[in-house]
Specification:
By secondary structure, the protein is mostly helical. Helices cover 73% and strands 0% of the residues. It has eight helices and no strands. The chain has helices at 2-37, 53-70, 82-100, 116-134, 141-156, 158-185, 192-214, 223-232.
Length: 233
């Protein structure tokens, strides 16, 4: 029983971290759209340049693999693979958004709309993507082979990726501090959106530091290398 709770807890924690990566990426895309198109002065004077949110996108991408590696446990499945439920969430979210809002699906994350329907739609789209990513390799053999190729490329550049994770983790924490200071000095900006952004930035930076401590990217190995190592043991 304790083992089952531990396994399910790790899987849930992994899904939450993966969801946070996607959410943080979406926040950064929306803020960058406002920065370039509407010339927003993002969290001035604490944030030196709004274009630093590009580092958040990079940090989120780099952190997806370490986040998913936390949940690499055998949990079985309830009727279907996770990706099936993920696709169901995506399709239903697209249908509801099309019927209840005027925001096109292609601009869902760049449109400056904060209505309840749009935000709920974004939540379920990201939730569906999280489930799909968690089970991505099981969708087809071709996609699994693509993942193996990406692992091989990442293995060759693992030290560069590790350095990138360190730098973007530090920048994520810096931007988190900037957002917190901005909220503290400007109480009128103490909105739910800014609080969620601060929380996602903190989790992103901690995920980066956790990945560095566990040396996730240094320990990555292509499937062929891993299987040969297993046979030698």
């Amino acid at each position: 029983m304790v083992s089952l709770v531990s396994v399910c807890g790790r899987k849930l924690f992994s899904l939450v971290l993966t969801f946070n990566c996607l959410l943080c990426m979406v926040y950064a895309i929306g803020l960058l759209a406002g920065f370039y198109e509407a010339h927003w002065r993002l969290y001035r004077p604490y944030l030196v340049d709004g274009s630093l949110f590009w580092a958040i996108i990079l940090a989120s991408i780099v952190n997806i693999f370490p986040a998913m590696s936390v949940g690499r446990v055998k949990t079985g499945r309830l009727w279907f693979h996770h990706y099936v439920y993920g696709f169901v969430f995506l399709v239903l979210s697209a249908i509801v958004l099309e019927m209840s809002t005027s925001v096109p699906l292609v601009s869902l994350f760049t449109a400056r709309k904060t209505s309840l329907a749009v935000n709920v739609g974004r939540f379920f789209v990201l939730g569906g993507l999280t489930l799909v990513l968690d089970d991505f390799g099981d969708i087809s053999k071709r996609l699994r082979s693509v993942l193996n190729v990406l692992k091989s490329r990442a293995y060759q550049a693992r030290k560069i990726i590790l350095a990138t994770q360190c730098l973007t983790g530090l920048l994520s924490f810096y931007i988190f501090v900037c957002v917190d200071l901005f909220i503290a000095v400007n109480p009128v900006r103490a909105t739910l959106g800014n609080f969620i952004l601060a929380g996602t930035l903190l989790v992103t930076s901690l995920t980066s530091f956790g990945g560095l401590k566990r040396k996730v990217w240094l320990n990555i190995a292509p499937e062929k290398a891993r299987s040969s190592k297993t046979r030698s043991e």
